[in-house]
Amino acid sequence: MPKLRELLVALGSRVTDRIWRLGFAARFLCMILVYSGQTFLRPQLLFREIWFSGVLSLIIIMVSGLFVGLVLGLQGYDTLQRYGSSEALGVLVALSLVRELGPVVAGLLFASRAGSAVTAEIGLMKATEQLKAMDMMAVNPMARVVAPRFWGGVIAMPLLAALFSMMGVFGGYLIGVVFIGVDEGAFWSQMQSSVDFREDVLNGIIKSFVFGIAVSLIAVFEGYDSIPTAEGVSRAITRTVVTSALAILALDFVLTSFMFRSL
Amino acid sequence: MPADNLVKISDLNFSYENRSILNGINMEFPRGKVVAIMGGSGCGKTTLLRLIGGQLRPSSGTVTVNGRVVHEMGHDELYGMRRRMGMLFQFGALFTDISVYDNVAFQIREHTDLSEELIHDLVMMKLNAVGLRGAHTLMPNELSGGMARRVALARAIALDPMLMMYDEPFTGLDPLSLGVIGQLIRKLNDALGATSLMVTHDIQESMLIVDYIYFMAEGRVVAQGTPDELRATKDPFVHQFLYAEADGPVPFHYPAGDYSADLLRVPARA
């Protein structure tokens, strides 16, 4: 019996710890919003972070998008040709990417590439007392370090997701039209007639925007809240990647169920 | 000590998570002087600096800087005060993603609207004062420990502060760099007309440059005086600290039971 009690106490403590942490993260988001003014008044701070989070993630996002498109093209053609509708390959590739794979896979890649880098940078700044030094110089680290990185990620993420989808469609075209020989006119015209801007493209953009907020918040929060040691920063980076991945997948389900509730 | 104090600490107590760190501290830091706070590791010296800088709130008592109680200041007033303070951190805390030049220019760019030409002149003057004008293009990872500390010093004096705070400025330095930093602290204090407050373990170097010393142990001030007064004191704690004696009021051994009983005890097998 005492063992069971200890187990329940430990479980309860873990759950309440997570809830407290969620509360801290929410308060942290409010502080970011309060101190965001400087980010937009000094656009060079924002452009620098868009460069680091967005431009430097371009290679991994574009190459991954291309390969996902190539695989979608192969798999899609293999399935569709069994039913004699291989011309619908363009629709299949485009809808899969724009609605789901673009935002989700780009989000996961963004969390691994840019999110982890942001956590490491802020965590190491904390560990080497750079944030404290900044605060002692009457420069608020929330306004100077955290808010620009948060907004940089939020802005970069939808753009990266769009590029991912674009490269994926190009990959599907390469496999379907160039290598296999699906009719080019049918590939593009069916895609154009079946992909709805509001229903598909806009919803995909909304998803990637929400994922951008989630990943950027997790990345800056974990970095700022990390224990200022080598081990503490390494754990914070791991938490960023794991929590971001879970948040993206959970949010994707919630958003999809709202967006396509007519089904 | 004279009455015209830039910093005054009265009956200061500070606790962290029910653990008492500082108990009833009273200190005065007169304008224009270099004052050292000494004591063993964990006696609350760095906490004291953070209380003066307003990064922590006291449990009770007051810290007054330039006539204003620090913990009663609002955000804007506190930041206004910090603009007139400089702090040298233990390992420099340079911003590692920008050059030496940009590190020194950081505070000037953040707080003033000066032109880049003027900022350039100011940065070069500050770097020249610490002997590193020629290193302005280097990145922090290209500097030795002593050079990084000097750059951090140039950054701290960028806006000609009224109060300079040094957190263990001599830690990890070779004897040459240690002497250079010590002399710079004194010279810059006198040249800027500032007041300097130095937390340190380094007795010999500090005794050469400071005007007054406070000794702390277990969160209290246990001795104070000018370097000459402290050299002449019979106080066993000060004597042990000044002459680096292994045993004394601060015991060499962590509290333990009888030594022979421990040696004779047969440990249980793991």
From TrEMBL, chain B:
UniProt keyword list: ATP-binding, Cell membrane, Membrane, Nucleotide-binding, Transport
Matches recorded under InterPro entries:
AAA+_ATPase (IPR003593), ABC_transporter-like_ATP-bd (IPR003439), ABC_transporter-like_CS (IPR017871), P-loop_NTPase (IPR027417)
Which PROSITE patterns does this UniProt record tie to the protein? ABC_TRANSPORTER_1 (PS00211), ABC_TRANSPORTER_2 (PS50893)
Which parts of the sequence belong to the ABC transporter domain? Answer: 7-243
Keyword Kinase found? no
Recorded GO MF terms:
ATP binding; ATP hydrolysis activity
Q: Gene3D superfamilies, alphabetically?
A: P-loop containing nucleotide triphosphate hydrolases
Record-given protein name: ABC transporter ATP-binding protein
